[in-house]
Amino acid sequence: MAAITRLSFDVAGLADFHASTPTIPERAITSRRKYRAVWISDVHLGTRGCNAEMLIDFLDHVDSEKMYLVGDIIDGWAMKKRFYWPATHNDIVWRVLKRAKRGTEIVYIPGNHDEMFRQFTGLDFGGVKIKRQAIHTTADGRRLLVLHGDEFDAITLSHRWLAHLGDAAYEMMMTLNRWLNRVRRWMGLPYWSLSKYAKQKVKNAVSFISKFEEIVAREAGARGVDGVIAGHIHKAEIRAIDGIAYYNDGDWVEGCTALVEHYDGSMEILHWAEEMAARESQPESEVRLAAA
Ligand SMILES: [Mn+2]
Description:
Strand content: 15-25%
Bound molecules: manganese (II) ion
Distance between the termini: 47 Å
Radius of gyration: 20 Å
Number of domains: 1
CATH class: Alpha Beta
Number of strands: 12
CATH architecture: 4-Layer Sandwich
Number of helices: 8
Shape: globular
CATH superfamily: Metallo-dependent phosphatases
Largest sheet: 7 strands, mixed
């Protein structure tokens, strides 16, 4: 509970953000690619797994009229265990609030890792509206239900491994596996695979993902909308399931993806690690950005 109090203190401190400056300076806004709407989720701020620099780069290159934060933005679970909050994580909060101030309509739908924000549903923090769910109407008139997705955890039971995403637990298990087998070899014992056990878990995860997608799409169909946008499972996706458009914006722990809506209503997944790699091989575009 102590960590929650500490987190609340940090949230209260956000009021000073407009007067502060980020540690990584913000780049020119004139050259930003603009979309009608952007969805990001599963950022897991407060964990070592969060690719903060990559998200900062994304926010500095992409702009939108509307932005949805689809949950697990801040990882309250991880912060309860161990407080971790580097300056780059503040830089992300700073950029989101700055964006709201500039006129981007921002909707924050807390997930299960940041469920402490659900108590603020209906409130507005510096232009960031907190909601449990939202309906987004695309430029081509489609109604899409936006939710985090943990609502379906009770139905999709084999999800416990998800708690370890954005956590060092999985990596630690792999390291442990190496050491364990080094000792076993030294003792003349055969290889025993802890990683095989882990892979079995991942195999279960694959069937979990398709099950999740189908259940979420079915629920959207039952609610009479044209499609659904979720996060939660760290798997970016655009596909039709029984006539319902299923979208998932992915995450910023492994995939580093965002979902965007173009001005004609078409949707696309941006793979930011690939975008950054492509830009590095074409340094002139970076020069143009700096000059703008
Ligand atoms: Mn989640």
